[in-house]
UniProtKB/TrEMBL annotation, chain A:
UniProt-listed HAMAP family: UreG
Description of how the protein assembles with itself and partners: Homodimer. UreD, UreF and UreG form a complex that acts as a GTP-hydrolysis-dependent molecular chaperone, activating the urease apoprotein by helping to assemble the nickel containing metallocenter of UreC. The UreE protein probably delivers the nickel.
Protein name as catalogued: Urease accessory protein UreG
Main location: cytoplasm
Natural source organism: Actinacidiphila acidipaludis
CobW/HypB/UreG nucleotide-binding domain segment(s): 26-195
Origin: domain of life: Bacteria
Homology family: Belongs to the SIMIBI class G3E GTPase family. UreG subfamily.
Chain ranges passing through the membrane: none
Residue numbers binding GTP: G30, P31, V32, G33, S34, G35, K36, T37
Record's subcellular location: Cytoplasm
Job description of the protein: Facilitates the functional incorporation of the urease nickel metallocenter. This process requires GTP hydrolysis, probably effectuated by UreG.
Keywords, ordered alphabetically: Chaperone, Cytoplasm, GTP-binding, Nickel insertion, Nucleotide-binding
Organism lineage: Bacteria, Bacillati, Actinomycetota, Actinomycetes, Kitasatosporales
Pfam families for the chain: cobW
From TrEMBL, chain B:
NADP in keyword set: no
The UniProt record lists the keyword Cytoplasm: yes
Alphabetical keyword list: Chaperone, Cytoplasm, Nickel insertion
Subcellular location as annotated: Cytoplasm
Top-level taxon in the UniProt lineage: Bacteria
Primary location class: cytoplasm
Subunit structure: UreD, UreF and UreG form a complex that acts as a GTP-hydrolysis-dependent molecular chaperone, activating the urease apoprotein by helping to assemble the nickel containing metallocenter of UreC. The UreE protein probably delivers the nickel.
Annotated family: Belongs to the UreF family.
Gene assigned in the entry: ureF
Coiled-coil ranges from the UniProt annotation: none
Name this polypeptide is given: Urease accessory protein UreF
Native organism: Actinacidiphila acidipaludis
Source lineage: Bacteria, Bacillati, Actinomycetota, Actinomycetes, Kitasatosporales
Task of the protein: Required for maturation of urease via the functional incorporation of the urease nickel metallocenter.
Entries under Pfam families matching the protein: UreF (PF01730)
Length: 225, 223
């Protein structure tokens, strides 16, 4: 057990598993029902043969997300933990991350060193983002059915996330969402940060998100060497 | 009064407390907390039982007593397995925040000795000491938390008027001070008489409800 280096990672006071190997932690935030759990499930299916994965869910008042992932058998049950958030999902991922850090460490103690930990936030509002003390990178998942003006409205999730995922593009025709406009608004708000369009539970799969994670994994491995 | 005490007791201090209701979620479900008046009674009961015990443990730890002996004493005073788990988990979370805020060899040692977490009041007292606070400060922090946690949770659970919740705590403040004084005196006696001199008040209904609550399939708070 060691403490992360105070100068390299001043924001982390994490007792990590011995060996210096540290999993890449990826946060998935976004409004209720946008497809965060569906994205986690699809990512696990896509990446589980390449890297060792753990998942932390932050359900608001149930174990629903964790149970869904267990039912779908996307990972072995001991690789999935649920954190209870006392009715405040954004607090647990941003203001007081201690329970989530415990959960990550519990995973690593239980199943050994991991390469990738996916942390799903409870569905919250557009201002909820992850603390840098908890995750290395974060994606914000919105959907076309929530209104095609969300990228224009901005807010920390849209403007600051390392990846913006616009999900459920299969529904765009049904709800009259203008995907070109969403793409243009997102580009204007995000100053060069990437945006991808998906339909994780339908045809157009999670591939662009998985590719983005592979790049981050390659970067973090290169950085650690 | 030191500003370090304000920081340690600030609800925004990142030590995991926000996900716990101090038994209020179960009490609300069982119809024992329905509004400000019943919340006040609940908080008073908790303050004079587990609050007193926690305050005495914290004061003793802040006075420099052997932390592992205090940890055993906390175990002996926590009959509910669910609450033992919660207390150790919160202790571990507090220790993480404490080591970042007030780095000290004694905190590192406690983490090494109790990797699964020491009891929260013991960590609270050790943290107070590392922050240069007194045993009485530590006792006040623990006693206040024993009432403050259910009050905050009830605002979320019942939509209770937050001004009423604040008023409940304000009216309890003299009792919180009195409990902290008694706890500090007991901690002082424990220096010569051992941990047996620490109070062992218990609240069986809190223990029973905590066990039930831990088995609920759906809940907002961890405890
Ligand atoms: N049509 C369509 N439905 C989708 C897509 N992705 C997810 N869904 C559905 O949207 C609903 C919500 O998906 P979840 O993955 O549970 O959303 P979430 O963001 O995890 O929701 P919370 O955790 O409750 O905030 C489910 O019924 C999914 O099947 C998609 O690409 N297209
Ligand atoms: Mg979900």
């Amino acid at each position: 057990m060691h403490q992360d280096h105070p100068e390299i990672f001043p924001q982390r006071h994490t007792m990590s598993v011995p060996g210096g190997h540290r999993a890449l932690r990826v946060g998935l935030g976004g409004p209720v029902g946008s497809g965060k759990t569906a994205t986690v499930a699809a990512l696990c299916r896509t990446l589980r043969d390449e890297v060792s994965i753990g998942v932390v869910t932050n359900d608001i008042y149930t174990r629903e997300d964790a149970d869904f992932l267990l039912r779908q058998a996307v990972l072995a049950p001991d690789r999935i933990v649920a954190v209870e958030t006392g009715a405040c999902p954004h607090t647990a991922i941003r203001d007081d991350i201690s329970a989530n850090l415990e959960a990550v460490e519990e995973l690593e103690e239980r199943v050994g060193p991991l390469d990738l930990v996916l942390l799903e936030s409870g569905g919250d509002n557009l201002t909820a983002t992850f603390s840098k003390g908890l995750v290395d990178v974060q994606m914000f998942v919105i959907d076309v059915a929530g209104g095609d003006d969300i990228p224009r409205k901005g807010g920390p999730g849209v403007t600051m996330s390392d990846l913006l995922v616009v999900n459920k593009v299969d529904l765009a025709v049904h709800v009259g969402a203008d995907l070109d406009r969403m793409a243009a608004d997102a580009a204007a708000q995000r100053g060069g940060l990437p945006t991808v369009f998906t339909s994780v539970a339908r045809g157009q799969g999670v591939a662009p998100v998985a590719d983005w994670i592979r790049e981050r994994l390659a970067e973090s491995t290169a950085g650690a060497a | 009064m030191s500003a370090a005490l304000l920081l340690l007791t600030d609800g925004r201090f990142p030590a995991g407390g926000h996900a716990h209701s101090g038994g209020a979620e179960a009490a609300v479900a069982e119809g024992r907390i329905t509004g400000a008046a019943t919340l006040a009674e609940f908080c008073r009961g908790r303050l004079h039982t587990t609050g007193l015990v926690a305050a005495a443990l914290a004061a003793a730890a802040a006075a420099g007593a052997d932390l592992l002996a205090l940890d055993d004493a906390a175990d002996a005073r926590t009959p509910s397995p669910a609450l033992r788990t919660v207390s150790r988990r919160l202790g571990r979370q507090l220790l993480r925040a404490a080591r970042a805020a007030w780095p000290a060899a004694v905190l590192d040692q406690l983490a090494a000795d109790r990797p699964r977490g020491a009891h929260q009041p013991v960590v609270l007292g050790a943290t107070a000491r590392a922050a240069g606070l007194t045993p009485l400060d530590a006792a006040r922090a623990a006693a206040y938390e024993s009432a403050g946690s259910p009050a905050t949770a009830t605002v979320r659970l019942l939509g209770l008027d937050p001004f009423q919740a604040a008023a409940v705590l304000a009216r309890l403040a003299p009792e919180v001070d009195a409990v902290a004084d008694a706890a500090t005196a007991a901690a002082h006696r424990a220096r010569t008489e051992g941990t047996g001199a620490l109070p062992a008040a218990s609240a069986p209904l809190l223990d029973v409800s905590a066990e039930r609550h831990a088995a609920w399939p759906t809940r907002l708070f961890t405890s």
